[in-house]
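note to self — DONT lose this again. spent like an hour looking for the file last time. sequence + predicted structure for the chain T wanted, 384 res
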Amino acid sequence: MATNVYLASKPRYEILDGLRGVAAVLVVLFHLLETYSGGQAHQIINHGYLAVDFFFVLSGFVIGYAYDDRWDRMTVWGFFKRRLVRLQPMVIMGTVVGACFYFFGQGDGFPLIGHVPGWKVLLAFVMGCLMIPCGAGMDIRGWGEMNSFNGPNWSLTWEYVANILYALVFRRLPKVALAVLTAAAAFCTLDLCLDWNVFGLLTEGHAGHRYTVIGGWSLTSEQVYIGLTRLFYPFLIGLLISRIGKFINVKNGFWWCSLILAVLFSVPCVGGENNILNGVYNATCILVLMPLVVMIGAGSQIKGEKSAKVCTFLGEISYPLYITHYPLMYMQMNWAWSHPDAPDYAHVMVCAGCFLLSIGIAYACLKLYDIPVRKWLTEKWLKK
């Protein structure tokens, strides 16, 4: 029978930690350059949105590795406590950072800022800190996001869903059943990427993002379907990879995998705007290439002190960077839209400053807040 005994963390896959950091850095660059893209088909790091799907593959793998063999010593509530300690402190900090920069985004691009009552702003802040998704009636920015203070919070909402389903359902499934469920999730990925729309859930609202997986950040039926589709196959294939345990050893695996991710995210829109070839590319990345990267990252070894330090730094900063950078992007977008005639060097300086400030804020949050808070919660809550 499972007990509530505290379980120490297992050794980490350092390369996978490092790759999470590489993906987080690419996400920041993707968002900075998105402001100047002129539309989805013209974005410079065109497929940077696939980083979210890669995060879900990593999550499924790591959850399976860390917890699959521990259920004889751990309760469901014990599992939830561990995940809350790992994720929730930075969810709160991401919302706090978003609140600090909220009014700096006031302008035509964010039509609701400064035009909603104070009680709604306060309630949206509390809901964001508690990881309660906001519906359309609680939108205080004008973009329909689950957390108007911090856009990327939507993917953490689905991460929580995956953790709950893992504890209640997925962990109990044998490999064959898990493989069948993964295949069903792959069908949904193809339905979204190739715009089959078998279930009739993709509306005209998705027309500007046809043959992509862009979406998942709002509480509409279409956006919920996109979010769940983006979650299920990556998470389940990551979990399945961890259970099968067949990895690939490649010399200098971290650097090769980092290069692969950079290339996958930077490939231009295949075939042009709203072209099915781009959908095929999205599906290939999600269904085949990203799981392959995880298999290489899990099977390869780090050789060299410098590589180990790079992986450690990127792994530590990855989550804080991802969950705190976007409030700066709101500010950068508003500045760029408000100063269309500013010289090119000014735009370069603003982007470079936001990038460096994103790294600095993430590192400060990690060292001064996240690590101490998680340590305190572990001692005062988990171990009891």
